Amino acid sequence: MRIGSVQMLQTISIRRVILVAGAIVLHGAAIAAPATGDSVDTFEQQARVIDRNLKLAQAEEVGAAEDPSSVSEEEFYELDQKVRILERQLEIREEEEADALEEDTTASADESGFVIESGDGAFTLKLKALVQGDTRIYADDEETASDTFLVRRARPTLEGTVGEFVSFKLMPDFADDSATLIDAYVDVDAVPFATFRGGKFKAPVGLERLQSASNLHIIERGYPTELAPNRDIGAELYTGGLINGKPDSIVSYAVAITNGALDGRDSPATNPDDNFEYSARVFAEPITGLGFGIAGSFGDKEGGAGDDAGDSLPRYRIPGQQTLFEYADTTAADGQQLRWSPQGYYYVGSFGVLGEYIRSELDVTDGATAAELSHEAAQATAVFVLTGEDASYAGIEPYKPVGSGGWGAFEVAARGWLDLDDDAFPLYADPADSISEARIWGLGLNWYLTKNLKAALAYFQTDFDSFGGAADFPKEKVALSRLQVSF
Amino acid sequence: MKLRYQHLIVAATATAIIGAAPLASAEEYELLNVSYDPTRELYTEFNAAFAKYYQEKTGDTVSINQSHGGSGSQARSVIDGLEADVVTLALAGDIDALYTEIELIPEDWQTRLPSHSAPYTSTIVLLVRKGNPKGIKDWGDIVKPGVSVITPNPKTSGGARWNYLAAWAWAEKEYGSEAKAQEFVTKLFQNVPVLDSGARGSTTTFVQRGIGDVFLSWENEAYLAIEELGPGEFKIVYPSQSILAEPPVSVVDDVVDDRGTREVATAYLKYLYTKEGQEIAGKHYYRPRNTKVAARYKNQFKEIPLVTIEDFGGWDEAQTKHFDDGGIFDKIYSEGR
Q1: What is the arithmetic mean of pLDDT over A200-224?
Q2: Do B179 and B163 share a structural domain?
Q3: B interface mutation test: which of A88, A117, A346 has the most B CBs within 10 A?
Q4: Which candidate in A31, A86, A282 is best for mutational testing of the B interface (most B CBs within 10 A)?
Q5: Chain A residues with CB-CB distance to B under 8 A?
Q6: Is B2 on the interface with A (CB under 8 A)?
Q7: Among positive and negative, which fits the CA dihedral B56, B61, B67, B71?
Q8: Do residue B323 and residue B288 come from a single domain?
Q9: Which residues of chain A make contact with B194, given a CB cutoff of 8 A?
Q10: Interval A10-39: pLDDT, tens
Q11: B321 and B202 in one domain?
Q12: Which of A285, A338, A361 lies at the smallest CB-CB distance from B19?
């Protein structure tokens, strides 16, 4: 039907034509324009206004049949289709832009750290950190240690993934005046049930050693950690476990071959005695919160006496970090070292208990005689979260952090015991300078202000025995405090 | 006391056995099915049926998450790392890519289930508006001036590739040469105003946005549009010839082995071939493979001559010739613009 015909089935007013044409111009400009959020939104808003007016105009078509300035239904249909097409193209473009945005590399910063991540998630870089500022106050004037402030740990950490199978961690510590490499390893997770790790990492023996330093229930770790190896250099195969960030695993394991670290210490940068140490761990977590297992290590240790003794023989510290046992200068490691440690934890609701026992057996010699010495330590640390959050081996996240209408979370903890082999005295260690047994009780209070900020207080009292009463070691009474930032 | 190594080994073994004891109880599984665009309704019903069946049979519970999109795009997502336990895509060429690009599946994946791993079939039809105002009767009518055609983008959509090949096959038969067929599809895409990424997007364009005169559609999607979105508003026109579309399925071996879901994922796909699975397919307008079930839905589907992908030399050849970068579609789409 053509313009002006009085036999049109339906006529369309010039007003509608103008509205449709306007919409076409606006939509077309939006499609043609470079995609910016503001320009697309503006065009779309204008187009929607015109569409709304178009619909209103359509509703006003009563009596429009006699309007002489109308166009045919066919022409209007074409114009209407053009508007719809432009709208749909805009819609599709917006969907594609939203999809592209999701695929782009993103950077984020939140309580878990600072993260750069590729669109497909295969490449990530995380910057994290742990900073702990402590005080140590020794309660008795007889103490030889000085009350002190100290930076206990200052550890920036780079973690990331390179592709689907490879991840890495690099963590130095700047707490002492010189930088120390704490962790530096690469993980390759290419086959099921076996992740390969190479580099410097925590030996898979001590339960509390494997717990992150930011999640400790009491400021310093218990005595069993003194007998377990710390970081070592080598290779490991492992899988699963809450420790490795896989809380759904029921059974986890780790087997490692390393240079061999002394009790309570990191291994040196190179292997000092041409012997490797083999360690292994099996740990079951059959239900959430319950974990138990056994770990151990064995390997030969050999070391020269005198100045070299420090490389092959450990020194043992107490919670105030004072050394209260060391081998005589004439003593050297000469043979096998075997450690074994049953361990476990149970966390249910706000209550938890962590316990471990460790026995470290070492063959030593003073050049003339030899002995196998067995040192043992045990601890049981009980925790209770006063504010109702769930206690956990992996740390606590407060329900109501400070700054979000709450006071954070409060946790109390109590605990351990170290017994050094009497056979060490007097040939291999001086009973006047080294303790033979330490019994400790400790109490801790942790305040988790936020997920990233923690304040802690702890008090330890340790009683000592000497071999044959050769020395009278005074009790150590030490109060520790800590302010910790971690992300 | 000197501890013997044997004691340590026994203690370690006991720990592992005690810890693993709870494994004997019922398992909970979660599967991800990455599918092509129009199968949402099919798998909503199928997943519920399979979960019920599997729990009754094994005592284990299984929940299935779905992802839908253009078949080519979905395959790309899986290659790029989306951890699909199973893929149920529009064409074998898209699942082949999971082998050729990254070996997520074995080369002979299509032999593992019956009927080349395609539990049901479909075809391509022409969906027009009520009254068929443009008089569309066959492929030749859709390239006429003034006819607006809706079809998704063959670069991303499996359905679009079936559409294209169906049109090409008709034109080659009608006009007698590949050159004429190329001319035909060039004109076809000149009549396409909007290219959605997948079949469901095109359904939205045609049915809900009211764009276009004819929609080149999966047969099941056309029936769905009529049943759920516009009873009486649309009509299916069966062309004189179309193509046998065989959407295949496969377990993604790398993923199921890593996640320990091979057994349940395989059972899930095999359930598509059971009487219950075939009934659900027929109910959602897919042509069942099971002859007895297919007989019950005979009146629902019109029998027309169908070419197959083998007439194009298989998906490898068709993909390379028509749809890969620099292929015929790239040439005709740029010519037509």
Answers
A1: 91
A2: yes
A3: A88
A4: A282
A5: 81, 84-85, 87-89, 92, 95-96, 120-122, 164, 192, 250-251, 253, 280, 282-287, 292-294, 296, 298, 338, 340, 342, 359, 361, 372, 374
A6: yes
A7: negative
A8: no
A9: 85, 88-89, 92
A10: 444 555 555 555 555 655 655 555 544 444
A11: yes
A12: A285
Q: Does B194 touch chain A (CB under 8 A)?
A: yes
Q: Give the C-alpha separation, A132 to A213, whole Å.
A: 10
> Which chain B residue has the Cα nearest residue A362?
B2
Q: For residues A171 and A182, is the Cβ–Cβ distance under 8 A?
A: yes
Residue type for position B84: A
Q: Are residues B93 and B139 in the same domain?
A: no
Whole-prediction pTM: 0.58
pLDDT in tens, B63-110: 999 999 999 999 999 998 899 999 999 999 999 999 999 899 999 999
If asked whether residues B169 and B96 sit together in one domain, one would say no
Clarify whether residues B94 and B178 are in a common domain. no
Q: Which residues of A touch B22 (CB under 8 A)?
A: 250, 286-287
What are the extents of the domains in chain A? 14-103, 106-486
Containing structural domain, residue B228: 124-242+306-335
Please confirm whether the linkage preceding B22 is cis (ω < 30° from 0).
Answer: no
Give the closest of B18, B209, B258 to A84, CB-based: B209
Residue B8 lies inside a defined structural domain of this protein? no
* ipTM over cut 0.85: no
Distance (Å) from the C-alpha of residue A292 to the closest C-alpha of chain B? 8
Task: Flag whether B228 is in a domain.
Answer: yes
Domain spanning A106-486, CATH architecture: Beta Barrel (2.40)
DSSP string, A250-319: SEEEEEEEES-PPBTSPPPSS-SSS--EEEEEEEEEEETTEEEEEEEEEEEEE--SGGGHHHHS-EEE-T
Enter the tokens of residue A102: 């999701």
